[in-house]
Each structure stands twice: as C-alpha cells, then as structure tokens.
Amino acid sequence: MPRKEEQFNKNLASFFDEVSDLDATPLSDIILSNKERYYDFNFYCEGGLKKIYRCKDRKTGREVAMASLKDELSDARKESFFREARLSASLQHPNIVPVYDIGIKDDSPWFTMKFISGQSLDELIKQEPPLSQKLDIFIRICDAIAYAHSRGIIHLDLKPDNIRISEYGNVVVVDWGLGQIMASDCDEELLECYSFNSHDLDTMTVDGNIKGTPGYMAPEQTSLIKNKKAPHTDIFSLGCILYTLLTAKKPFTGSDLNDVIKKTAECTFDAPSKRRPELEIPAPLEAVCLKAMSANPTDRYQSVTELQKEILKYRDGFATAAENASLLKLLQLWFRRHKSLSIVSILALLLSMAAIIAVMNNLKLAEINALQLAEKLRIEKDYAIKINKESAPRFLARAEYAFRIFNFEDTANFADSAVELDPSLKDAWRLKGELHFIAQEFNSALEAFSKSNVNPALIQVCKKYSLIKNKDSDHLKLSQYLALFQDCIKEKLKAQVAGLMHKMAYSDLSIDDRINFCKGIISVHNKLMTIHFKYDKQTKTLDMSNNPEIITALAIQNFPCEIANLSYTSISNLICFRAQPLEELNISNTKVVELHSLDNNGLRKLNISHTSIPNLTRLHGSQIEELDISHTNVQNLTFVPEMPKLKRLTVHKGQFPESEISRLPKTINLTIK
C-alpha cells in the first residue's frame, strides 16, 4: 500500500475515534440525569416473600440484584422487609452479601445488593465435591456468622440454600430476614432495627410460632421448647449444615411437618456415620457435628469461633477437643503431620520418654493457663456488665413499651437484657413474670415475681393456677382459661386481661377453637348469659348483630372473616377488627363515633348508618365501593372525590342540600332512605 494512502487510513481511523469520543455521553451527565437509576430488569428467583431481579445501575454501571415484595402486602410486612435491608446493610464483611440502596416505588419497597452469580451450597452438595472443598466453605460461613455475632446480630435461618458460592469460589451468607438483634451486645444505632409491630408474623419461614426452616432449625426455634434464641441457636444450625456436608442429607426428616418439628424439639436424629455408613465419615468431624447439635445449649460450642477452630484443627491434622483424643491418637496425628521425621521421632520417643512426659505436663500446664485466661476474660466481662449497669433502665423502658403494644417477643428480649445488665432491677423481673403469666407459665412467673414487687392479687391468682396446671409446658383447658380470665377481671388486673386476650387472639388456633374462644371471652367480658354468634365457614361471614349488651368485642381480633356484621351492638370503637381480611363491614346502630382506628385496606362495602360518626377523612383513598352514611352526623359530600372506587352511596332524606347532591358524579348510584 502506498505510503500516502496508508497515512490517509490512519488519519481516517483517528477521526472516527475522535467522533466516537465526542458522541459518548459524559459520565457526569449520566450521573446527574433524571432517568430511572435501575433498568434492564430480568427475573432471577423468588423466596417466601421476595422476588429477586437482575438489573443495571445507571449511576455505577454495574449489575446488581434488586429484592422486592412479591405482592401488595401489609405495612407490617413492609416494615419487616425494610428491617431486613437495614440489618443486612449494617454487616460489612466479605462473606455477607452487601446492601447498596433502599427505597420505595409506587408504595412498593425494594433494596439492591450485590448480585452473586453461581449456585447455592444446596446445589453444590448434590455435585458431591471433595471434603476439603466443603470444609473450606464451612470455615468461611463461620467467618461471616462470627462477625455478625460480634455485631450483636444472629441469623436464625442458616441452611445450605441461604449460602451462595460464586463462579470464582466466593462464599456469601444471604437472607437475613429472620435476623434478630441481641440488645445487650449490639451497637446503639442497630437498636432502631428492632421491630415493635405486634402483628409481624410474616417473617416466619413456617406459619405459626415457629421461625426457621424445618431440618436446620434449633430446638429452641420450635414452639415446643422454651429456651431463649441466642448465638447458640446459630451454632446448632451450623452443626446441621456440617451434618449435611458430611452426609448430603438433612439431620431432621419425618413423615410430615409436625413430625419434623417434634424430632427437632427432642433433638432426635441419627449420627452422620449411622445415616451414611458407606461414606466412612471422619470420626473427629462427626464428634464436632454432634457437639454443635447438642440439645442443651450449654453443651454446644459457646462461640462460632470455637466451632471454627475445631474444623481448622481437623484440617491441619490436629485432634479436635470434641473427640477427646487419646495419647495414641495424638501421636498418630503428629506422625501424619511430620512424615519425613517419623523414624527420627520414633527413636527420639524411645530415648526421651521422660522428656515426652515433661512435654505432656507442659501441655497440661498450658491447659490450666488457658482455663485461667478464660476465667480472667469471664471476670472482665462481668466487670464490663457492671460498668454498663446504668444501661439497664434503657432496656427496661423499651421492654415496657413493647409490652404496651403487645409485642411479647421484643418485650422478652429487652427484659432479658435488662436483668443481664442489672439483676437487681425489680421492674424487669416483674415484666418477665407478667410475660410468663400471659403464656400460662405460672411456676416461672412466680419465680420471677419473687425478685420483684408485684400486686398481691396477681400473686394469688398465679398461685391458684400453678396448682391447677403444675407443668409450665401444659396449657389450660378452655373452661379453665375462661375462669382465669374472669379472675383477672374480678381482681382488676387490666394488663393481664389485655395480655391474655391478645396472646390467644394472635395464636395459631383452629377455626373451631377460635370460635369457642371468642364466644367464651365475649360472654365473660360483657357478663352475658347468651350470645348471638354465628360464623359461616364457606362465605367467611361473622354475624354478631342484635347483641345490645356487647360493649367490647376485642377477642375477635385476627378472626378470619371477610364479612362482619356487628350492627345493633354497643361497641364504641373498631379495634376489634384489627388484622381481619374484611371486605364487608356493618356497624350500623352502634356507639362507634370515629373511623380513625379502621385498619382494613381491603374493605369494599361499609355500613355506618345510625351512628354518630361525623368525619370520613379516614376513608380518603380507600377501595370502598358501597357506603351507607344515612342517619349519621356526616354533613357534606366533600369526601366523594377522595373515594375514586365509590359506586353506591346511601343517605337519608334531607341529609344534604339538593344542590350538593346534584353535583355527585353520574357513576355513583344514590339511594335516599
């Protein structure tokens, strides 16, 4: 090619390079643009409540994962969703998925995090990788959980499916949705992640009182064992993961869910070597696994670091503490680690038995020193607790607030933290006793009350029912429960009356048990001999109308009805309808005077006729299609434009001027009584 033509081609290429550079959008313009930050969404996977999408971040140019709620859910679930995001964002560790951003779009919450390509540990186990690779992964999982525990956070849903392994071998722990904060150990800013929502049952992997995943949860995560959830709970789940790494099987299996839960509570499972005898599972690892999965939390490893060190010992050829190795076993391991020196070592052993005995004595001395160091650390910790004694009232205040809004789990956590920091705090013991009383654990309640100042009437009621029900693990029969409720009313124990009713209302009851509970409580509470209470299971219709003696019906909270009729009763507020999936509600001819406590977003039909309700501001933006306001104190129709779904409106004659009625939209069918 002629020289001039070659030079021309070079200049032409340079020109196109310059044009390309000029045509590219400056990065500053991209960052400052008003376009949506996240785009190019592709569905990736979904879990119990969340959907995960892969998308691009316009500002950083990287691919991220965006989590969002699957459906339009309650404010409680949204709060739980944000709590998970904030809690995850507070954990900065290479083996914990980092959260980048949190927000709300169209009333739907979301958060973005690092996208981890690859597979779950559950998927990897099915490929039967070598033991060394599985142990390396387990060590990194321990790194993540040990760090989380140091920040005062426990995971409570550890399982192979929540461990992600990237294409390049990075190990990341995900899904902190059930994560819990240990109030006495966490940083001050993490306390805001504590949930005070009494109805937040949506983070449960299993419905009811069980939070965790069957097959990998600890006994104290079932409703059958009354132990506090703490770091030892995660340690048990780590033991379950190690069990699966060794056997490729879950430790707890059964014919159905209840069978699995029962075996978990009883800690009944086959040892790994018995479950898979053909695999020749190393005895030291089995011993470590079994210790981590001890039924009694005090028999487990007392920290994740302690468990991790055992795995490192095995990997590096040392004896684990769990196997309680003999002298012969220690020597065998030593020879394996130092094969090149074996012959020399044998000769040295024969010639220097006395020296070896001295070494063993030194090892014993080192063990004594280690125990002394542990005791010193314990003393230092006790001293630190004493120094922080002034923090106990703050935890007590949070416990009392949680108790007032019926968040009994948070109450227990904060009250436990308060007495840990200051065992002499009588009000904290009183609160613990009241929790036990509400849970029908009367012996435990009396023990806690003995360390506090309590209403003597409450003590007498507690003693009475401790004789009726000797075991705290048992439950009162309905007739006994109603008698207890009546005794509390008689002695004017308002907090206990409210607590007993609320705990039962939000328990996992069958529909027949719930009907009997509601009828019994309403009868006792309102001193009724008979009650009109009818429930149609097919249409989910609850009819309690024409009971003028009913003043309070709080027991029907959380009742699974879609249609409710409490007309011609004497109820004065709408608190009794909390947590109900109501679509139709009739409270006509009642003493209700306001709607601000109406918290049923799915309501389509509402009848408030013949009440003293004057204001419909609470209904603005609602989905109500049919509304009866005849013979109420509502004096204008300014609410109509604020109810876009309204199709049928009932008023009484002369309630509004004709000029105002004439301005109603033609889409509304007006009925005048």
Question: Summarize this, please?
Answer:
By secondary structure, the protein is an alpha/beta fold. It is 42% helix and 11% strand.
Question: If you had to describe this structure to a student in words, what would you say it looks like?
Answer:
With 673 residues, the chain is of the alpha/beta class. Among the domains are: 80-96 and 117-320, Transferase(Phosphotransferase) domain 1 (Transferase(Phosphotransferase), domain 1, Orthogonal Bundle), CATH 1.10.510; 352-508, Alpha Horseshoe (Serine Threonine Protein Phosphatase 5, Tetratricopeptide repeat), CATH 1.25.40.10. The chain has 22 helices and 18 strands. The chain has helices at residues 3-23, 27-32, 75-89, 121-125, 131-150, 231-247, 257-266, 272-275, 283-292, 304-315, 327-337, 342-351, 353-387, 392-404, 408-421, 426-438, 442-449, 456-468, 478-490, 494-505, 511-526, 658-662; strands spanning 38-46, 50-57, 63-69, 99-105, 108-114, 119-120, 153-154, 163-165, 171-173, 180-181, 534-536, 541-543, 563-565, 584-586, 605-607, 626-628, 648-651, 669-672. Strands 11-12-13-14-15-16-17-18 form an eight-stranded mixed sheet, with no helix packed on it. Strands 1-2-3-5-4 form a five-stranded antiparallel sheet, covered by helices on one side. Strands 6-8-9 form a three-stranded antiparallel sheet. The longest helix has 35 residues, at 353-387. The chain starts with a helix and ends with a strand. Residues 12-23 and 195-209 have low confidence and may be disordered.
